[in-house]
Specification:
Chain B: GO terms for molecular function: very-long-chain enoyl-CoA reductase activity. The structure holds two protein chains of two kinds. By secondary structure, chain A is mainly alpha-helical. Chain A is built from nine helices and no strands. Chain B has a four-stranded mixed beta sheet with strand order 2-1-4-3, with helices on one face. Chain B has a two-stranded antiparallel ribbon with strand order 5-6. The longest helix of chain B has 29 residues, at about 220-250. The chains are: A mainly alpha, B alpha+beta. The interface of A and B includes residues 6, 14, 192 and 241 of A.
């Protein structure tokens, strides 16, 4: 079926309705990947708990888990490839945006701006991310093994209701706290005149990033709510014609 | 009795036996024209929206859309998509009812395409915007740069040249939209005007800001670089114009017959031998010329993004050509000779 520009949405729905029989290798790889990621985030969670129990403070916590965090969050880029080659039935763009926003936070905010690493907001979003990722990856793992315990399904489709806003709050607060340091050091910025005739102000860029949460967050949130209604409550939702 | 026999006969017959020329009805005798019954059903909810009886077999889809519009005034014809199959392709406005593979009771699935806007309106707005926006930056209107530079003029002649080229490009585009282009779809979804205008206007502002900036740095290789780039730019502008003329001459006014474009006497059209959509090729060339002329990274980004978009469109058009014409030349590539 050839899709014209206007029938793009029809073709997409067709692909989603087609029964996909995954190859055995794809299933094996995905199972391995999801188990590895569940383990990784569990390690992170335990390291965080251990640090707090031993030291009694959150100062220095980020530094102690920074390497593990960077590793496991960056590896998540593979998920975009999964969507692109079709072994996971999710939109490349949605996954791409989610992974990129995480990588941005880790590499371009907390890793680069050392002064904010001991902020409470960092601990907040780390806690949210850890909880969410462990739930999500174990959900995928059990799904692939066809033995999904109900409580994991429940957790995945209900906990986000508070976790998502908490995570956004943590991230936004962190960026906001970082702004003065960005302005002072002029990091990642480029001024005129230069031979490429371009300028970039990281401070204003971060402000725009913060503002972009306003349109983006509700969209992702309502997407998850719709998924929840479909999966947990078995509602049949007639998608609005684009 | 007569009408029943006629109906049975026409059901078994090929449609070509009933010629599209309406015969004058013989008075006070049995009907010779078999009227169709048309049912319009919502494609998603399968709800029956309208039942029309006594529809002329020679009516076009457009006529049926007009009738549907009368009973549902919120759905004007441009907004309606009628299909034979809920997941199928929309029927063309010129399709004639009796040539379609339906019995005398036709069922069409309707979907609402959403608010529509004329393509001409969209094209003109997306071209007037950059033209005016660039000029705003060129003349350094207040509140853009530091107040001491308001209404000042750049000391680099390449900046003036760039303004002329940019303006020329969009004026040419506007004139082509008004006088040359022939587009098959009359309308497009309303949201397109917001998408397209944001794209063109934002990029134009971004480019214009840096090119007309008081701290602009002229090209590294000076006059040589600018002159070469200008030649490339002009060459590609003429090329693009030639292609648009050639494409216009393909379509006779009013007819919707598609033809394969071929090289003509104009040397700029000889690229048709190697490329399906040389208008995009020349457009890419123009913007590459402009990038080298201004040595401005935002222009380079605009060129790259434009290239990606045009490649997607070119590949789509190329695929359509290949499907529509069995004997389509195999040497041709969508946008770049031999490469893409």
């Amino acid at each position: 079926m050839v899709s014209t520009e206007e029938d793009g949405s029809v073709e997409e729905k067709e692909n989603n309705n087609k029964k996909r029989t995954k190859s055995a290798i794809a299933v094996a790889w995905l199972t391995f990947y999801n188990i590895a990621m569940t383990a990784g985030w569990l390690v992170l969670a335990m390291a965080m708990m251990r640090f707090y129990l031993q030291k009694g403070t959150h100062k220095g916590l980020y530094k102690s888990i920074a390497r593990t965090l960077k590793f496991f969050q960056t590896i998540a880029l593979i998920e975009v490839v999964h969507c692109a080659i079709g072994i996971v039935r999710t939109s490349v763009i949605v996954t791409g945006v989610q992974v990129c926003s995480r990588i941005f936070m880790v590499w371009f905010i907390t890793n680069s701006i050392k002064q904010i690493q001991n902020e409470e907001s960092v601990i907040l979003f780390l806690f949210v991310w850890t909880f969410t990722e462990i739930t999500r990856y174990s959900f995928y793992t059990f799904n692939l093994l066809n033995h999904l315990p109900y409580f994991i399904k429940w957790a995945r489709y209900n906990m986000f209701i508070i976790m998502y806003p908490l995570g956004v709050a943590g991230e936004l607060l962190t960026i906001y706290t970082a702004l003065p340091y960005v302005r002072k050091t002029g990091m990642f910025s480029m001024r005129l005149p230069n031979k490429y005739n371009i300028s970039f102000d990281y401070y204003y860029f971060l402000t725009i990033v913060m503002l972009s949460y306003i349109p983006l967050f509700p969209q992702l949130y309502f997407h998850m709510l719709r998924q929840r209604r479909k999966v947990l409550l078995g509602e049949i939702i007639v998608e609005k014609d684009e | 009795m007569d009408t029943l026999a006629l109906e049975a006969k026409s059901n078994g017959q090929e449609k070509k036996s009933s010629a599209p020329r309406p015969r004058p009805k013989p008075p006070k005798k049995a009907k010779r024209i078999v009227y169709f019954e048309v049912e319009i059903v919502d494609a998603k909810t399968k709800e029956k929206l309208l039942l029309l009886d006594k529809v002329e077999p020679t009516s076009t889809i457009l006529d049926i859309k007009a009738l549907f519009h009368k009973s549902n005034p919120q759905w004007y014809p441009a907004r309606q998509s009628l299909r034979l199959d809920p997941k199928g392709k929309g029927l063309k406005d010129e399709d004639i009812l009796q040539t379609l593979p339906v019995g005398t009771t036709a069922s069409f699935y309707f979907s609402d395409l959403g608010a529509q806007i004329a393509w001409g309106t969209v094209f003109l707005s997306e071209c007037y915007g950059p033209l005016l926006i660039y000029l705003m930056f060129y003349f350094r209107l207040p509140f853009i740069y530091a107040p001491k530079y308001d209404f000042s003029s750049s000391k680099h002649w390449v900046v003036h040249l760039a303004c002329m080229c940019h303006s020329f490009h969009y004026v040419k585009r506007i004139l082509e939209t008004l006088f040359i282009h022939r587009i098959s779809h009359g309308t497009m979804p309303l949201r397109n005007i917001f998408k397209n205008c944001s794209y063109y206007w934002c990029f134009a502002a971004w480019m214009a800001y840096y090119i007309n900036h008081p701290l602009y740095t002229p090209p590294y290789y000076g006059q040589q670089q600018v002159k070469t780039a200008l030649i490339i730019f002009l060459f590609c502008q003429v090329g693009n114009f030639s292609i648009n003329i050639a494409l216009r001459n393909l379509k006779c006014s009013g007819s919707k017959v598609k033809k394969i474009p071929h090289p003509t006497k104009n040397p700029f059209t000889w690229i048709f031998a190697l490329v399906s959509c040389p208008n995009y090729t020349y457009e890419l060339g123009s913007w590459m010329g402009f990038t080298v002329m201004t040595q401005c990274l935002p222009v380079a980004f605009f060129t790259i993004v434009g290239f990606v978009l045009m490649t997607v469109w070119a590949r789509g058009k190329h695929r359509n050509y290949r499907k529509e014409f069995r004997d389509y030349p195999t040497l041709r590539s969508p946008i770049l000779p031999f490469i893409l």
